[in-house]
UniProtKB/TrEMBL annotation:
<protein>
    <submittedName>
        <fullName>Kelch repeat protein</fullName>
    </submittedName>
</protein>
<dbReference type="InterPro" id="IPR015915">
    <property type="entry name" value="Kelch-typ_b-propeller"/>
</dbReference>
<dbReference type="InterPro" id="IPR006652">
    <property type="entry name" value="Kelch_1"/>
</dbReference>
<dbReference type="Pfam" id="PF01344">
    <property type="entry name" value="Kelch_1"/>
</dbReference>
<keyword id="KW-0677">Repeat</keyword>
<keyword id="KW-0880">Kelch repeat</keyword>
């Protein structure tokens, strides 16, 4: 099969072919904190105690999305939708952090960078219940400059797979916060920060206009993977990456999808991109800017098979300047050789690299993580989570100081299986 690649990408892939499996462990030392107060461990048990007990979510959830929006110089973590025992959720939660890595009050703290999240407050609700959704962060161009934007697309309302999409901009969030956000928090002993009383204008729960609809996708899909494309160079497939996002795979009915589409905000239009090599749902997706690649990792599907010891189908990549997806080096997730319901984010404390978090390998719910080293083209073992979880959402803070892992599902960790805990991964 003929494949068109750039010279640089071909060089990268040639290097990747001789580094298929990682056998070494990361030399970096990680530390973690969690809502249950336990400390996470690196594979060689080189860890340190961490101070903050993180807050818990207002509502336990799995299959949600998380992203950051910047309002007046302050980043807000936005947790969106998902599903719980009662069904698919319309609710949104907003977290902020008590400091930033540029704040002397934080950097002078000997426990930097482990400054915690503040307690969550209810945020502007989605226009409809949406679980098993895809969320991507990007930037949109306006007459006033660039705005942060979160796109939420696809998912399920509990009975129907969705092709609808909506967005929340930093400007819209700013207006909403100015009108509605007044809260009081208290510290719950031996537990977490929770809202003791959230005094939000009573009209906020009747409105959904803060989230703005965008064009419908070409294909309804639940449990897809998505990422913004801002840090990639445009090509023949996507001629402008500013404000664009990519959505891959998912489920339509009971059928796993290999189809991929991208949203072009200037035209408010979805365009079809080349199909992935493998049909997959509950995959994870992120960009690797230094290599100009979109990576999709894991997932499950009717055509998803592991052949002997070759599990390269776990990971594939697309360069927007090329016309095909290409398998990349992989790793062994154990179990049945599959990995679904993991989260993929940029690695904290580095300019490049990715962090793959948790998931389900067909046998066990995992507390493992993996680091992708784009220089060596290897997957390395990362720190362990305190709680094994599948279908969590995760976000690396914009200053790359830490990664937060939120919610998910673990059938033995709570009465319902749905998790309200948060964990933080950061370098010592």
């Amino acid at each position: 099969v003929a494949r068109t690649v750039t010279a640089e990408t071909a060089s990268h892939l040639a290097r990747a072919a001789v580094n298929v499996l990682a056998t070494s462990s990361s030399e970096d030392s990680f530390c973690g904190a969690s809502s249950n107060g336990r400390t996470t461990h690196t594979p060689d048990n080189n860890y340190a105690p961490c101070f903050p007990v993180l807050p818990r979510l207002i509502e336990a959830r799995s299959g949600a999305g998380a992203g950051c929006l910047c309002v007046d110089g302050k980043h807000h973590l936005i947790l969106v939708g998902g599903y719980a025992r009662k069904g698919c959720l319309v609710s949104v939660e907003v977290h902020t952090r008590s400091g930033s890595s540029s704040d002397p009050a934080v950097t002078d703290n000997p426990q930097f960078p482990y400054y915690s999240l503040d307690a969550a407050m209810p945020g502007p609700r989605l226009s409809k219940p949406r679980g098993r959704l895809a969320l991507a962060h990007s930037f949109c161009s306006t007459t006033d400059g660039l705005l942060d934007v979160l796109y939420v697309c696809g998912g399920s309302n509990g009975s129907v797979d969705l092709n609808t999409a909506e967005r929340l901009t930093s400007s819209a969030l700013s207006d909403w916060l100015a009108e509605h956000a007044e809260r009081v928090t208290e510290v719950v002993p031996n537990s977490s920060l929770r809202n003791s009383s959230t005094t939000i204008n009573s009209g906020c729960h009747q409105q959904a206009a803060v989230w703005q609809p965008i064009a419908r996708m070409n294909q309804a899909r639940s449990s897809p993977a998505a990422t913004g494309l801002d840090d990639l160079t445009a090509g023949t497939l996507v001629t402008s990456t500013r404000g664009s996002m990519l959505v891959a795979g998912g489920l339509a009915g009971a059928v796993a999808l290999s189809s991929v589409e991208a949203y072009i905000p200037e035209r408010d239009q979805w365009i079809q991109l080349p199909d992935m090599c493998t049909s997959r749902y509950e995959a994870a997706c992120a960009t690797l800017g230094s290599k100009n690649l979109v990576l999709v990792v894991g997932g499950d599907g009717s055509s998803f098979r592991r052949h002997d010891n070759n599990n390269d189908a776990l990971v594939e990549a697309l360069d927007p300047r090329c016309s095909n997806w290409i398998p990349l080096p992989s790793f062994n997730p154990g179990g049945h050789g599959k990995l679904r319901g993991a989260a993929l984010v940029h690695r904290p404390a580095t300019e490049d690299g990715l962090l793959l978090i948790a998931g389900f390998n067909g046998q066990d719910t995992l507390n493992r993580t993996w680091l992708f080293d784009p220089t060596a083209w290897q997957w390395l073992p990362g720190p362990f989570l305190s709680t094994a979880r599948t279908n969590p959402c995760a976000i690396t803070w914009p200053d790359r100081s830490a990664t937060f892992v939120l919610g998910g599902f673990n059938g033995t960790a709570s009465a319902t299986g749905f998790l309200d805990s948060i964990e933080m991964i950061s370098y010592v």
